[in-house]
Amino acid sequence: MSDAARWLLPSVLDHKAITDAIAGPLVEGRAGKRWWIAMLVSLLVTGVGAVATGISFEYGPGLWGNNSAVVWGFPIANYVWWIGIGNAGTLISALLLLTRQKWRNAINRFAEAMTILAVTIAGLFPIIHLGRPMYFYWMAPYSNTMNLWPQWRSALVWDFWAILSYLLFSLLFFYLGLIPDLATLRDREGPRSWRRIWGACALGWQGTPAQWRTHQRLQRTMAVIATPLVCSVHSIVGLDFAASLMPGWTESVFPPYFVVGAYFSGFAMVVLLALVIRSALGLEAMIRPAHLDACARMLLAAGSVMLLSYGSEWLSALWTGEAADLRFLRFSFTGPYSGLTYGMILGNCLLPQLFWSPTLRRSVPVLAIVSAGVLVGMYFERILIICNTLSIGYVPAAWTLYVPTLIDALILLGTGGLFVFAFLLLARIIPLVPMYEIRELAEEAQMRAAA
Amino acid sequence: MTALALASFDREAPFREAVARAGEADRRIVGLWSPYPVEIGNMGEEVAAPIPWIALAGGWGAAILFYAFTWWTATQAYPFDSGGRPLHSWPVFLIAPVEFGALAAGIAGMIAFLVRARLARLHHPAFDIAEVERASSEHFVIALACDAEDGNEVLALLLEAGAVHSRLVTR
Q1: What is the mean pLDDT of residues B53-73?
Q2: Could you give the angle at which helices A323-334 and A289-320 cross, rounded to 10 degrees?
Q3: Domain A3-143+152-450, second-level architecture
């Protein structure tokens, strides 16, 4: 079997079949009952989150579990978790493009869409956490009435520029890849109003050799820029912690450790989305067991690196012998949050080890369980990074435990609903698998078969 | 030129063959359209824009300007003593300019792409050709210049190359 043929079933080696399979379920087809139910449920959950956020804005952060010691709490843990998920899409797409991985084609589009949604949601949390969210624009450098400029040494300002730049760059990267597919939708039979919208967004794309050549060159250039950009964004999130003077935070390993963690959680989300999309949109011919196998290998590799990172963190504390660090380590394994620590190790390090087995790497239920386990494990990690350190800092008089409130939980739940809602909406209006890249792959498979 | 010979192909290989034969027969290629990127020798004729260099220049330029702005706001416009730290704290001042520079590089590349690919152009004579519509989803299309007299000869050339559909458009 040729390399290209591994990633596609023979039933979709025809260009028309590819276009029909991917573009067919879009707005021209009727949305199924399952889609409407999922939309309604996610909208309801989003509404609950919006109400909880509105109540927080009305009555202030006193409604959260945050206290005088654990000042960051859920909002910043949620931010780090969502931005981690958001980091993976562009990184996966760019890295796999640069390394010419053919299996990228099936997953890159929805991974990029996932990035945009997750980063947008992540960007909401620092604003919610401000306490006075209406002044978030003070982080932007503009000439205000007091001639005061942003404090460039502040981690909040770093986050502002990192998120803004990354979000806009990811949007550009996503849109660039989408242009040829929008032209396909424009030229297909379908609802006139939607064809007009797709046509306008396709910018008059024709698919001439000159256009393709320029398009491909820009795509590779953006992939080269995106790779260090993605790493820098989550490194900056790591620096939010590492630049402070708190036990468990002041570690130079944090930036790379955060990047791997982000990649890990994002990849887990990509796997879950891939499983849902291939089943819901009937794309089993294009998202093949070989894709699942490749994704499982990535999770296994990242999970093993996470284990090494945790080990390095724990050994560093032991090696320094610093009282606060040792107390922090003991607190992690025996304190009130120890259950989360063990859950984190189980989800992030032990569950992915199942993927040493080739059979389990291709098993849909196992992939779903492990991916969900990784997402939960990574959430525990984000919570622990904040709560362990801030609950048991240098000043014993300030030691306070953090317990999230119902409002905290509802805001988090609401963002989950928003993510699902926006993703379902996208699934109906844009192709979640890049048609032109699949056609190229199909042609290669055909040529090899003929040869 | 008084006519245009149009042909559609359902696969890349015959399309390439048609391009090669047109070159050998010294026929002028008016247009080529494909549903995914196809590289054939001098196909496309134009050299791609130096997009990486434009992106690099845009990114560096924006990053340098942003850094200068950061320096000016922190040391000239509103000098603020933050715990005795130097006013010009360059290691932390690098963060925002680097992020912004990456974004600017992407924007510069995108602008270069739009200019070079002659987008956005929603109305183009090529969209009046029915075959071009199918080129965005399943067909490879070639348009060759010819005269009405030798039109059939050109169509035969294209059919021999493996065209699944061909026709002559005369003025």
Answers
A1: 96
A2: 130
A3: Up-down Bundle (1.20)
Q: From CA A417, how far away is CA A271, in angstroms rounded?
A: 18
Residues 6+ apart with CB under 8 A from A324: A247, A393, A394
Interface subset of A 176-195, CB within 8 angstroms of B: 176, 179-180, 183-184, 186-188
Q: In the block, which residue shows the tokens 């797709």?
A: A198
In chain A, % of residues over pLDDT 90: 44
Q: Does A216 touch chain B (CB under 8 A)?
A: yes
Tokens of B75: 């040391």
Tell me which residue of A48, A171, A57, A174 sits closest to A124, measured CA to CA.
Answer: A57
- Which two three-digit tokens encode residue A318? 């032991």
Give the pLDDT confidence of A361-410 residue by residue, as tens digits.
Answer: 989 999 999 999 999 999 999 999 999 889 988 888 888 999 999 999 99
pLDDT at A10: 67
Q: Choose among A151, A200, A436: nearest Cβ to B36.
A: A436
Q: Which range is least confidently modeled, A122-136, A272-286, A305-319?
A: A272-286
Domains and their CATH numbers in chain B: 3-35+136-170 (3.30.70.1710), 51-116 (no CATH)
pTM of the predicted model as reported, rounded to 2 decimal places: 0.91
Q: Domain map of chain A by residue range?
A: 3-143+152-450
Asked if A348 has any chain B CB less than 8 Å from its own CB, the reply is no
Of B43, B46, B126, the CB nearest to A206: B126
